[in-house]
Specification:
nine-stranded antiparallel β-sheet, five-stranded antiparallel β-sheet
Amino acid sequence: MNKYLFIIPVIIMTAIIGCTNEKASLSQVKRADFQTTVNGKQIDLYYLTNKNGLEITVTNFGARIVELFTPDRSGKFEDIVLGHDHVDKYVKYAGERFLGATIGRYGNRIAKGKFTLDGVDYSLPINNEPNSLHGGTMGFDMLVWDAKQIDRQTIEFRLVSRDGDQGYPGTLTVNMTYRLSDDNELVIIHQATTDRKTVVNLSHHSFFNLHGAGNGTINDHVLTLNASNYNPVDETLIPQGPVATVEGTPMDFRRPTAIGARVDQDFEQLNFGRGYDHNWVIDRKTAKELEQAATVYEPASGRTMEVWTTEPAIQFYGGNFFDGSDIGKGGKSYDFRASLALETQHYPDSPNRPDFPSTELKPGEQYYHKCVYRFGTK
């Protein structure tokens, strides 16, 4: 028998799994630049692709997306997420820390890094003075997850956060999946269980620019938010009072509106956030089904992105704290209002607000959060 008949199946399987030294054809990052260890755990790159040629590069450091290639209306592919081309720039960040990452235990802010649960006071690291942001100084974005690539379109991640991690109670076991469907959907599923009552608010934090990462402003992107209300915040971006209507304010994106059309209006909430950095309450028709929360359209390229979620809210952040000092992939600078994040989530500071939807998780329950980013053109 020809000895090469034994080699062919191995080659085919390698191509399907996509976690060998062969990189995705559009990828610009080098796998070798991500193959190292942090705290004794191995970091690597993994590649996802679908039948339409969309490609995603991910790393298990922070279970984050490094690259995401989608076509414009003429079929030209561009990487539309901000990121770095070397893992050291994530590990030893000197700027925006959360690029493409999985956020936990608690996405968004908790006031003064404190909350009370069943009469017990808990203190969290202050990393966004005077508040705790996105899980603290060593949130899930800064940890090495266990990774298992299922096939060329799916990868699973697992993380165990021990009782007391960053001040949170309970040992939390998290399973997270990225799947790139043949319908051009990036499907993200977060699941978690705990052995002790705790609070959980997991989210995904890619920064998008539908021109291409580092390719100019997002103020010309046309945004629609399926939200009639939002959370007004104080100067530290902590919600104050009940939700407020968007009617008659620059927070109203119920109809398609260019992001830059009203961003510089003299409006207190925009002054506090240096622009848009707020939580919108989705006009949901069901309690927990997948529903559309947002749509983004970039007219020059024709790229579109829809956001669907099982969560009650979505944070829209317009890149107001970038200043060009972050240098990303390909040596491109990440400039002021040159990217946007759309983070599906529960409300900020919910552990301190009994009037907000609860983020408590008890033993025997399962946390479940599904988010879908659907890409297209028009």
